[in-house]
Amino acid sequence: MDDETLAAGLCRVCETPLFNSAIPRKDDETFAVCASFECGNFIERHRNLPINLFQSQLQFHREQLRERRLARAENEARIQARIVEEEAENLRLLEAAQQAFPGLSQQSASLMVIPTGRTRMVPVSSERIENYRAHLHKVIAEARSFACASDIPQDDQNWAPREKNRRHENVFRDQPEVELVSDHLCGMCKGACCSSGRDHAYLSPLSMRRTMDENPALDDDQIAALYLSRVSKGSIEGACINQTSSGCSLPKEMRADICNAYFCDPILEYQRACAASAEVLPVFAVQREYLSAATISPDTTNEVLATALVRSSGPEFMDPLED
Prior knowledge:
Blueprint: H1 2-7, H2 37-46, H3 51-100, E1 110-114, E2 121-123, H4 126-144, H5 159-174, H6 176-189, H7 205-214, H8 220-228, E3 234-236, E4 243-244, E5 247-248, H9 257-261, H10 265-277, E6 283-288, E7 304-311, E8 314-317
Parallel strand pairs: 1-6
Antiparallel strand pairs: 2-3, 4-5, 6-7, 7-8
């Protein structure tokens, strides 16, 4: 078996094909392994064992690898089955919407799955306030080292979302209704993307310097107080300190550029489709707890929580389908 493995150019441990860049291991072809850390580590730990013991350990390890591969393949098959099942359900819901809304089938409605953000409100603790205060003073001090926002180097990572936001503004200037539809979809989602804002709200020296430029009479403590005054008594549990049940407590001009610039992939695809067709398409939104079955365990439920036809005028929610 081992001679056959070597002759076939397979990894001595996991028996997968070897590539030229991954064959050598201390110039010993007897122990040629793939680039996997696990395989290389196994050889390094066992290569000096007596041959019989080495073969026994190797066989046991191979069996474990086979079992893990099988379990992984079964899990991937279950996930794929869930994806197919959800896609079929989404299409059934779209067909029901086309019957409920006359003329929808002729309007090329865009089918979109959107996730659901957290909704449970909890009091903002003093610890979170102090964490936020510390972050504010940190970025204010960094921003103070620049005379104005335009002095911050263009290669700073925080310029990227600012430029992206400008591109969005140009698109929305040509198709303002696309911005309205996008905002309605974000409102339905309730900020699933805001969860990682924590106690920093993505505020950077660039976004802070912009606020300082717009309020030149305020000193550092007053700038920090301006942001702290916007924190509500309650915020969404486990999310950004500024996220509330009615949206962000910061006005748009005070938010981080990444917050103003960000749209999830389904909304970006919709915006591109509208730009390509030069018309504002209605959206049939299917709201689930998670965006896709591909991103979760096949044992985790991902039920449809709401469906709505979303136009620039707002969402029209549908009653759930009868089983």
